[in-house]
User: What shape does this take?
Amino acid sequence: MIERRQYPSYKDLDPFIDVAWLKSLDGYLRERIERRLAVAHDLAFYTGPFLLDEKAPYLPGSRLVYLATSAREENYYDLDRTDLWSPSDEADEFSELMAFIATLPFRETGRMIIMYDSSGRAVTAHRDHDSAELCHEFIWFRTNFNKPFYMLDPETGEKLHVGSHSAWFDTVNQYHGADASGGLSFSIRVDGIFTDEFRSRIPFPKENRSAAPALWAAAD
Ligand SMILES: [Fe+2]
Assistant: This one.
């Protein structure tokens, strides 16, 4: 059988999560993020080196709240090393979000971040890494649709805006980014190891494992 991938694409994970619960956290998150804007100096989001347009900003303006802390210095390839990560002080501040995260189909969690921008600037289209055999298991999700988040096929330049509250997507063989929205925008990404039950639904390919979300999206 020829494996069929699809780009640009994302796997809509809304059928697997409690969307009503997620949406109910919107005001809670907004209030706490606004509080941080006033007092905290959160780390700037760095896109990494794999940009669609090399002249676009590596530091597009978004900030990160780390809900987990790594035992080691920041290294992108540690984000699913679940043994390294433990809840941060911010996990207490965002305890209701953490209760929701506990319902997601992860056996263990690694890096957990809230990405926010007070003025909703565009996020530069980028790939997360270039290791085709490395497939990060993560769930990207949001309480509202204020962030125009998209996937982009490098072959055709075609853009696909995410229309769901949650998604898993190929971060290696396509680009992703966000258009400017003008107002406070935020989303959450949790990396880890999916449960065996959840993994059993995923058509992991024998080669180019990072394309698993694109294969799964094509199967819908
Ligand atoms: Fe990314």
